[in-house]
Structures are given as structure tokens and as C-alpha cells.
Amino acid sequence: MFSKKCITLVLAAALGISHIGPLPNVLAQGYTPGNYEGQAEGFGGNVAVEVTLTEDRIVSIDVDAPNETAGIGDTAIESITNDVIEKQSLNIDVVSGATGSSEGILAAIAAALESSGADVDALKAKEDDAEELEDEELDTDVVVIGAGGAGLAAAVSAVENGASVVILEKMPMVGGSTIIAGGQYNAVDQNRQQAYEMDPALIEEIKALTNEEAVNETHERLMGEVAEQIEEYESSNSKHLFDSPQLHALQTFKGGDYEGNIELIETYALGAEETVPWLESLGVEFEDEIAIVTGALWQRTHQFVKPLVTGPLDAYQAYLEEAGDDAQILLNTSAKELIIEDGKVVGVIAEQDGRKITVNADATILATGGFARNNEMVVEFDEIWNDLEGLGSTNAVSATGDGINMAVEAGANLVGMEFIQLLPVGDPETGGMQGNISKNAANQIFVNNEGKRFVAEDARRDTLTAGLLEQEDQEMWIIHDAHEYPDLEVKNDFNESIGQLVDNGKVVTGDTIEELAEAMGVDPNNLVETVNDYNTVVAGEKADDFGKTLLQDPLDQGPFYASLRVPTIHHTMGGVEITTQAEVKDEAGEIIPGLYACGEVTGGIHGKNRLGGNAIPDTVVFGRISGQNAAAFAKQN
Q1: If we measure between CA atoms, which residue out of 80, 78, 111 comes closest to residue 7?
Q2: Which of 98, 140, 316, 562 is 20 to 30 A from residue 156's alpha carbon, by CA?
């Protein structure tokens, strides 16, 4: 029975778990020893467990959850089962970002225990007499606040550069919002991009970028460099896809409406190219195919071989584990305050299980993510959308702006806080990315509930969302066909197979456009007309009415698939102001000694609008920079 994704956990003592409090009162009655099975519905389908009991303990829990998302459901299995055994209780918090998986696992364990005759209600009851833990003080070279993608990259970089590191993570798992991101990674990659032909029309787009009015000297220099590059490309009679970090920087700058810091953007674009081999040196594998994620504007989007962003996260953790005593991760540990002495940040005061954790460090790195899950902050800083009250988000529930608030208390300056990115592809129930079948902007259409297109699907993300918000009910359908999903086992960017999504009702399907329209509940005549018109555009028989230029295959191969989506908060572009060396600036523009920042907690890189696929490389580029410079600062102090 337990053959797939089976995790076995044994006695807490064997796991080296300490601080086990008093056991629930139910154990005074004892258990009936034996193995007991239970089942429940998880996020991806049925979850089956086998619980082993002795007379007075839950000894082990075997879990079979073959359809739970890799990197999310797996982590929930380990965290939940670990906690149940450690605490001998069912009064366990769900894992952030994996609520469905967590609740399914807990329900299956409860069903197994109930079949044994145990008092499940007593096991769910809250215990008020937990053991009081002593405060603790730690010393390290570098302390990293946040164990998402940026924080772990920073920690690896710091260790690489000879520093000892303590990482504080307020959640019971690492990963932050990174672990629930799709994993699209924009970076120039000449080797992989050689496999693709250059559309001659795109050359004119590049030339237009090089002839804009310069904002500053860096912008002018970058335009000149790209102009020389494209001239050299044309004179070589090359046919492969053209790209360069300078072009990436110009597109990112323009894509953010010139509101970003062009020096930070250049650092980002050059670093993104360099991080591909760096990640590969850590054991991360990339697919060879290069795509164009929605809102990316250019064919430079990589995808990891492992699902979502588990490739880099697994590699970071493996590296840090090999570092031994030089790297320590403290979960369920919330940073509360930066320690400042003589104007310098010298550590962090945190809280874990009600006790105080003081980390003394020569350098501190903020990697706490954005504030998309703090609706009060979202509403306070929004100056663009004007109606974000109660809107869902794709981010992990940990993205509550903690690091931004701590930085402000330390005197840090904030930039671009009003720039809040919405996506048009949120789940109607959760606001998350689950069920999103968007894979390739060149091969999809968006239609409203009338079965009509309303926007160019290769446009910027803010343009796409603005178009959706203009629709009467603010709902849209993403439509793909067998070109992207040739069989039911093909997965979206969130490791969900199209067959699984159809089975759980997240996606509807039809062998013909008429059948698809019926499943969607839209006018079949409208949808047929829409698809036929789109196919004439793909065939080159007419220009697209909405201006779409990234075109690949017609929508003409059944089965056809459609996923209902709504607007959702996706990224907060504003945050702590940093230098190109990831140093945090104060309100006077001076560097705060000992304080660095990376990832979504920072502002100034993406401007008014972040390009699709730019977020994950941002965490890696400035994670590396912050770790390297924090380690160097620690050595000097």
C-alpha cells in the first residue's frame, strides 16, 4: 500500500527532537498497540496513512500521497508527521503554502487513530501546560533573516566566502514564497538560445530600444552597447536568437516604466547570466528548452528539471548541510528586532516557542520577502490600483512585510512601495497559482466569459491584469490545446498534470472548441469565432487586433483545455533601498553598516512592473552578492 512518496518517522528521541512537553491526557487511558490505516482527501487527491501505536505512544507514521506537489506536499508530510510524533498530539499548525496537503495528512492520521479507538477529540485539544523553554544566545559571522530562495542563496554565498551563518525562518519549513513559485528563470544563455531562430521583426524592436531618450549615463551606455551588439549580429548573418545581458537590462528598465534603478538593473541582468553556471555548479539542473513565460517579453525563460524551484532549494540545503557547524537553520523562529550599537547592525533578537533567541552577528542579511500577504500594508501603500482590499495573493502567508518594518525601525529608506504587481492568473478560490495552465505566452489565448479575447497575451503583466479588471465580472479563461498538453501526464509549471487538474475540476476540457465552450459555459459561436480569428493571425493572414506578436502554433489540436482565473496580488516591487552591493541605505542615502538585503524585501530593481521570470534570478543574484559582501564585512570586523 505504502509504495509512493512514503515517509516513515520514528520515535521523537530517535530524531534527536528535544523539548517534548507533557503528553495529552488521553494517553492516561493508553492506546491499543498495532498498525492502523486512515485516508482523507489532500490537495492533490487521496492521502493514505498507516499509524503504528504502542501502549503509550504514536511510534511512527507512514504516508502515501502520490499526487501531492513535490517540494510542497512532501514538506508538509514531513513537518506534520514530525510534529504529531514530537508532540503526541493532533493540535498541529498547518504548513504555510501547503494548507490542503497539511489538512489532508492530519485528517488521515485522525482517521487512523479513531479506528484504533483513541480519543481523537482529546488529541486535538490544546495543551496549556507546555514546558517553558530557556532563552538562548548565539554568536555567528552572518545572520540571515528568512529561509526563502534569497535567504538560502545568501547563506550559501556567505559560507562559500568563509563565514559562519545562522538562518532564522519564522515558518516550520524553508522556501518562503519561492517554494510555491513556478520556477521560471530569466537569464541570457547563449548555449541554449542557439537552438532558436531569430524573428527578423524582433530586430526592429531591439533597435527601437537603443534609440530612446536616455534617462541617465548608464541608460545611454547600455543603449550604445546593445546597438553595437545588434549591428555585429546583423553583419554576421546569424539566424539564431539574439540576446545579451544589456538587452535584458533595457527591457527590464522599460518594462518597469523607467521607475527602476538602472544601476541595480544592470547588476541584476549581468548577474542573472552568471548565476546559471553557479547554480549548475551546486547541482541544479535546467531544462534545455528556453521559453517565454507570460510577461517576460523575450525568449530567455529557463525551467528547472526538478518541479517548481525545488532544484535550487534542495541544492542550497544540501550545501548548507555539508557545511556542518558553519551553517545552522532555526525554524519557527521569528525575527523581532535588529540589534543596533553605535549605528551599526550587530545582530537580531528573535522569538522561538515563546523564548527569546539573541543572535550576535558581524553582518545581518534581510531576506524576509515582500508584503503581499499583509493587506493592511497593501492598502496603505497602493497608489495605482485603488481597490486591493481583501484581494488574494500568490505569495506564501509569511510575506507580511516583517523585514521591511524592522529595517524602517533601524532607519532604512524605502523605495517604490506603491508599485504592487497583480497577476491575471489567480485561483478563484485561493488567489494562488494552483491550476494555472499558462505555459507559453506564444501558444495561449485569454478569453472572457463571453468567449472573446480582450488583450494581447504576450503583453506586460500590468497590462494583462488591467485588461482583466475591465471585464464585467473580472474573470477570464486561459485556453491551450494539445500543442502544449499532448497527453494527460503533461504538467503545468506547478507540477500539476493536466489530467489531475481536469479530475479535480480546476480545468475543463473538450475535444472540439464547441465542447470546450459548453464546459466553460460560454457562447460556443463566440468562442469558435475567436479561435478561428486567432488562427488566421498565427498563419500570418492578418495582424492581431490586440497587437500580439509572439505567435507559435494555432489552436487547432484537440483536446482543448481551459482554466478559470482571477486577479491576484503577485509581487510587491517596493522595499528597502539597497546599493549594487546589496548594502541597505538609510533615509539620508548613507549605508547602514552591517546590514544587507536581497529578494522581495528590497525595492528599486523592478520599477513599476516586474517582468515575468525576473523574480527568481533576482533572489539568486542579490542573494549571492549580499552573502559575499556580508562575509567580507564580517571578516573586517
Answers
A1: 78
A2: 98
